[in-house]
């Protein structure tokens, strides 16, 4: 096989070998390259002309030096030009290879930088959501109980210890129930003149929206309640936490359960007490002023409690369960006194009538049932696949779809002057007349 120059790929007239790379070159070409660069063109190591090793070949009789006008002289000029072109071409190939390597490295760096930027953008978005969550909680009240949230972040670390239903608390509840019963008898069946009419309900619009409540990592509000005498006080809840809010400011956070809170109801006795239920199969009764847990009772059926509502008198209350039962409890005795069955899905909501004689329940079976508490029986059932507000005639008055996620709680204000709703989109909305 003929030997070829590593630079020109031609059979060399005077072949030499580089000891650095072992490659064969045309002597005149490699000498020019060494004079310009001083390195081996293949290995890149230092190389001098003296280091080149000549390869012995049969002697060739050379013609006499041609004159400048002869054909051999022209050929010599062309040969020199060819050598220069080969040297330039070889250098360009080396530079192209180096440029390709640098470009590949730059592309890898660009890809890594894009990944870092995307991660940082995601972290910034999460931080902004967390900041939006913390803003409504900036005014958390400090209370002496260790389980009530009083530090930045607003959630107690451990459930509150039970203080017990003292005789003083029971006496307050009994006295309030007596007063409420007497007031209800005086009112009789007279409809308050201040009560909002059906036409006004149809004209309700969104008046305000409180956004960014509770955790951004576990978004959603599971339920709420509005105080009957103070419309600025409401209780939205999420996970293990109950919170009291005044307009856009958190005033107190309670922790009374070991699982997600599913329902709550403010006691009619001023702003003192709140009832809550949870998936931990317990209902709890807490003092809002001090943040103390007064009592916590388990449901012996060992199923999650899904909702809760206090009777207008405040001495009994109802809870819904995941196995389709509605249970009536005596608050003073902390015992289950009656059960209602008939739904085929988990109970989602319950409500007592203003006169205290009737109970309305809703469940996942798309039914609303009305119960007579005196006879302990169901006397009416409504079925619907849409949310609605209905009057005594049972006619659909208005539907609302302002939330962007599932609506989890709705409460009327005093005399139905406004409606407040909560949703899994972490917002509270106020509806009323403009």
UniProtKB/TrEMBL annotation:
Annotated WD repeat ranges: 298-339, 340-381, 400-434
Catalytic activity: S-ubiquitinyl-[E2 ubiquitin-conjugating enzyme]-L-cysteine + [acceptor protein]-L-lysine = [E2 ubiquitin-conjugating enzyme]-L-cysteine + N(6)-ubiquitinyl-[acceptor protein]-L-lysine
The name this protein goes by in its record: Pre-mRNA-processing factor 19
Species: Aromia moschata
Domain of life assignment: Eukaryota
Keywords, comma-separated and alphabetical: DNA damage, DNA repair, mRNA processing, mRNA splicing, Nucleus, Repeat, Spliceosome, Transferase, Ubl conjugation pathway, WD repeat
InterPro entries from the UniProt entry: Prp19, Prp19_cc, RING-Ubox_PRP19, Ubox_domain, WD40/YVTN_repeat-like_dom_sf, WD40_repeat_CS, WD40_repeat_dom_sf, WD40_rpt
Gene3D superfamilies: YVTN repeat-like/Quinoprotein amine dehydrogenase, Zinc/RING finger domain, C3HC4 (zinc finger)
Subunit structure: Homotetramer.
Predominant location category: nucleus
GO terms for cellular component: cytoplasm; Prp19 complex; U2-type catalytic step 1 spliceosome
Cellular compartment(s): Nucleus
Described purpose of this protein according to its UniProt entry: Ubiquitin-protein ligase which is mainly involved pre-mRNA splicing and DNA repair. Required for pre-mRNA splicing as component of the spliceosome.
Stored CDD domains: RING-Ubox_PRP19
GO molecular function, a single term: ubiquitin protein ligase activity
